[in-house]
Specification:
The complex is a heterodimer of chains A (about 350) and B (about 280). With about 350 residues, chain A is an alpha+beta fold. Chain A folds into two domains: about 230 residues, P-loop containing nucleotide triphosphate hydrolases (Rossmann fold, 3-Layer(aba) Sandwich), CATH 3.40.50; about 120 residues, Nucleic acid-binding proteins (OB fold (Dihydrolipoamide Acetyltransferase, E2P), Beta Barrel). In chain A, about 25% of the residues lie in helices and about 35% in strands. Chain A has a six-stranded mixed β-sheet with strand order 6-7-8-3-9-10, sandwiched between helices. A six-stranded antiparallel β-sheet of chain A has the order 13-12-11-14-20-21. The radius of gyration of chain A is 24 Å and the shape is elongated. Chain B is mainly alpha-helical and about 280 residues long. Chain B has a single domain, classed as Orthogonal Bundle (MetI-like fold), CATH 1.10.3720.10. Chain B contains 13 helices and no strands. In chain B, helix 10 runs antiparallel to helix 13. Chain B is flat. Classes of the chains: A alpha+beta (about 350), B mainly alpha (about 280). The interface between A and B is medium-sized, with 35 and 26 residues. The complex binds adenosine-5'-triphosphate (ATP) and magnesium ion. The site of magnesium ion has 4 residues of chain A, from helix 1.
Chain lengths: ~350, ~280
């Protein structure tokens, strides 16, 4: 429904930087997920989009219009708050109806919309209760229903599923995505959960320390991380990062020797490879080490290999078994390797 | 196990003993008052202790015959409820402003409001007398209403403010993004959420107003504006000397509604209502 663009957004409290510098253009109907460690400024950024927090510097535009001086209530966004923020004196029904009532939706419409939103989050049986009489997950779903009950310019969702069990989370994720696609409403979504980010997002924004580390589609973020931070943040287990020396296209570290790297760089670097981008054995293995641990998960087996001083994680066949301490060699998929500057963590290309 | 149970029982007994003793300390004067009010005059002024009192409603009937009790009661109720109403109408928006908006001098204003409570009332007694005289409000319940309201405004504001501070800011943020105006947020979200606090503040203001004496004495010079507490002072005059049993009865009458109200709202005096609004 609306394009949202943030330019040079900063938020400072006294000397403390909540958000240092955020620039992003969110397209109309786009689903953008903010992902980052706790305290990196996700909520603060979202609150600035909503108009609940005034940026210290920078501009918020919606559909090309400067919004800095527009009051939160006139921005027409619907927000799911991290702490739910349900109105304690109202029943769930009244909570979900509140935004409709405030925006003058006709009475007959209100009832229909409240019931359909409640049905989507599976709360139909709890409409008469007060928030205090609901479980954490039910409260969270009520907060979600209150946001999706109307058709705003944008949805802002701050970890809307964090308190749900895995099964419900999966179901709600599908609902959210479906609603977003159907209503075509620009959505900004904050989460800690990578799976949520990967499955929901058109684009993922990785934040750290009040700065955007990378913006990209889930594939780009996963396959082409721009820094060691992003590489180590995404994926479970995350990308293996091995420090070593690069000279003449050859990377060397204790237990590692990788030839013919297409990078004209030399010096200390970090080699990154995902656990699934390597195979045990092979004719010309580049890694050798000893088996440190084995974790069968059913569909796949994780092997921890000790190469030099470093423990690397490898995803392998579910039938793989070995004794601890066995020598093992590994072949890397060189097309998928990433090299990073050892000091700055930035990607070398 | 048996030992544990025994010591628990013992501690329970001790607890009840302490609470019982405390209840006696609290209730004894009240009951004594009541007994004075319900006995004939001769009996309560004899120096000998009387173990088996005779009960009589003399004082009760005398009260209604000799004094315009209905008027006193009406004055009290009107002045007290009026003042509490004024207090709430002023204090709720004031407390909202003090707890929510950031502006220069906010804390100073807050402290100033509270400091009015620290002053000895006698200091302002004379100016207030002349103020009301010039306003030609002396000897009216309007004056009492205003004075009671003024006396209690600070405490009511502070109590309500402290409850408002406990309300998570996210709640208002949510209401704002939902499109509610400030006034709506105040009346539909904040006030219901802090209702226990508002009731607490109102009850406290009521108690202070019932007990107010100095200003009432100053303002009220005829039964037109006498409240129960000042009427009491007049029971010392007249041909009968000090009519202790009537005083005791009136004191009891003044005390009972407060007592009942406090018991009735005890549940609300706890701060439980905001529970469930936010996580955890
Ligand atoms: N009102 C405030 N005053 C001062 N500092 C604040 C304020 N609000 C947030 N911060 C700080 O700003 C930083 C960013 O906070 P924010 O809530 O945006 O983090 P977040 O990324 O949402 O974290 P989480 O994932 O834990 O919710 C934090 O270090 C926080 O302590
Ligand atoms: Mg947050």
């Amino acid at each position: 429904m609306a394009r949202i663009s943030l330019t040079g957004i900063q938020k400072k409290w006294g000397e403390f930087w909540g958000v240092r510098d955020v620039n992003i253009d969110i397209a109309d109907e786009e689903f953008v997920v903010f992902l980052g460690p706790s305290g990196c400024g996700k909520t603060t950024t979202m609150r600035m989009i909503a108009g609940l927090e005034e940026p210290t510097e920078g501009e918020v535009h919606m559909d090309g219009e400067l919004m800095n001086d527009v009051d939160a209530r006139d921005r027409d966004v619907a927000m799911v708050f991290q702490g739910y923020a349900l109105y304690p004196n109202m029943t769930i029904y009244e909570n979900i109806r509140f935004p409709l009532r405030m925006r003058g939706v006709p009475k007959s419409e209100q009832n229909r919309q409240v019931r359909s939103a409640a049905a989507l989050v599976e709360l139909t049986d709890f409409l008469d209760r007060k928030p205090a009489a609901l479980s954490g997950g039910q409260r969270q779903r009520a907060a979600l229903a209150r946001a999706i009950v109307r058709k705003p310019q944008a949805f802002l969702m701050d970890e809307p599923l964090s308190n749900l069990d895995a099964k419900l989370r999966q179901a709600m994720r599908v609902q959210i995505k479906h609603i977003q696609r159907e209503l075509k409403i620009t959505t900004v979504y904050v989460t800690h959960d990578q799976i949520e980010a990967m499955t929901l997002a058109d684009r993922i924004v990785i934040m750290d320390g009040g700065l955007i580390q990378q913006i990209g589609t889930p594939d780009e973020i996963y396959n082409d991380p721009s820094s060691t931070f992003v590489a180590g943040f995404i994926g479970s287990p995350p990308m293996n990062l091995v420090e070593g020396v690069l000279a003449g296209g050859t990377f060397e570290a204790p237990g590692f020797r990788v030839d013919a790297l297409p990078v004209a760089h030399s010096g200390k670097v970090k080699l990154g490879f995902r656990p699934e981008d390597c195979t045990i054995g092979g004719d010309a293995p580049q890694v050798s080490g000893t088996v440190y641990g084995i974790e069968p998960t059913g569909d796949i087996t994780y092997v921890s290999l000790r190469a030099g001083e470093k423990l690397v994680e490898i995803k392998t066949d579910r039938d793989y078994r070995a004794d601890l301490g066995n020598r093992e060699s590994v072949t890397l998929d060189t097309r998928r390797l990433c090299l990073f500057d050892a000091a700055t963590g930035t990607r070398l290309r | 196990m048996a030992k544990v149970r025994k010591s628990r029982a013992a501690s329970l007994i001790v607890r009840y003993l302490i609470l019982g003793a405390w209840a006696v300390v609290c209730l004894a004067p009240t009951l004594w008052f009541l007994s004075i009010g319900l006995r004939p005059r001769v009996e309560i002024i004899t120096p000998q202790p009387i173990y088996w009192p005779t009960w009589s409603l003399d004082a009760w009937w005398k009260l209604w015959e000799q004094w315009p009790m209905a008027k006193y009661l009406r004055n009290s109720v009107a002045a007290i409820f009026g003042s509490v109403l004024i207090d709430l109408l002023l204090a709720i928006p004031a407390a909202y402003s003090l707890s929510r908006y950031e502006y220069r001098g906010r804390d100073d204003i807050g402290f100033y409001i509270l400091s009015t409570r620290m002053m000895a009332p006698a200091i302002v007694a004379i100016p207030i007398f002349f103020l009301f005289k010039n306003l030609q409000l002396l000897d009216t319940i309007w004056a009492l209403m205003i004075v009671f309201a003024a006396i209690n405004l600070s405490i009511v504001t502070w109590i309500i403010r402290s409850y408002m501070l406990d309300i998570p800011k996210e709640l208002e943020d949510a209401a704002k993004t939902d499109g509610a105006s400030d006034l709506r947020i105040l009346w539909e979200i904040i006030v219901p959420a802090i209702l226990p606090g508002i009731i607490t503040a109102a009850v406290i203001a009521m108690i202070f107003a019932i007990n107010e004496f100095l200003f009432t004495l100053l303002i009220a010079s005829t039964p037109d504006a006498y409240t129960l507490s000042v009427a009491l002072a007049n029971f010392t005059a007249g041909t009968d000397g000090v009519i202790y049993n009537s005083i005791a009865l009136v004191a009891f009458i003044a005390f009972t509604p407060v007592f009942l109200v406090v018991i009735a709202i005890q549940r609300h005096l706890s701060r439980g209502l905001t529970m469930g609004a936010v996580k955890g």
